[in-house]
Amino acid sequence: MAKKNILVIEDNHAILDVITLILESEAFNVNGLNKGADFIKHVQEFNPDVIIMDIMLPDVDGRVLLKELKETEATNHIPVLMISARYNASNYSLDGIEADDFMAKPFNIDELMDKIYALLRK
User: Taking the CB of the first residue and of the last residue of the chain, which one, N or C, has fewer CB atoms within 10 A?
Assistant: First the structure.
């Protein structure tokens, strides 16, 4: 079975590094971004099976990126797990477009992996 690709968009470098190490230890191909610039282009080039996205990014609200992703025909099928320290599950949508799942920071590693595997099964 081919390795699955996971794109992580997180502006906190320490959190990005931890998530990357965890996912790579589970044999995923991981690509990390720390801002939203050229997001759709990057998604189309990397072709992720799941996206883990922080809501609060330095250059754009993650919900705006989610909306762009879900409104783009070539990428709207990709499941998204939104993560945030300042939001709750009721605040992870924009204009009715919602992520596939939500997780508050700080998060439990086992819960993170459970959510990723659930999204991959969709």
Answer: N
Domain limits, the chain: 5-121
Q: What share of the chain is helix, strand, coil (3-state, %, to 5)?
A: 40, 25, 40
- Tell me: pLDDT of 44 over 80: yes
What ranges in 26-108 are assigned the alpha helix state H? 39-46, 62-70
pTM above 0.85, yes or no: yes
82: CB partners within 8 A, 6+ apart: 53, 54, 55, 62, 63, 66, 92, 99, 101, 102, 103
DSSP H helices, the chain, are 13-25, 39-46, 62-70, 109-121
Count CA atoms closer than 13 A to 57's CA, side-chain side.
24
Distance CA 107, CA 103 (A): 7
5-121 is a CATH 3.40.50.2300 domain: yes
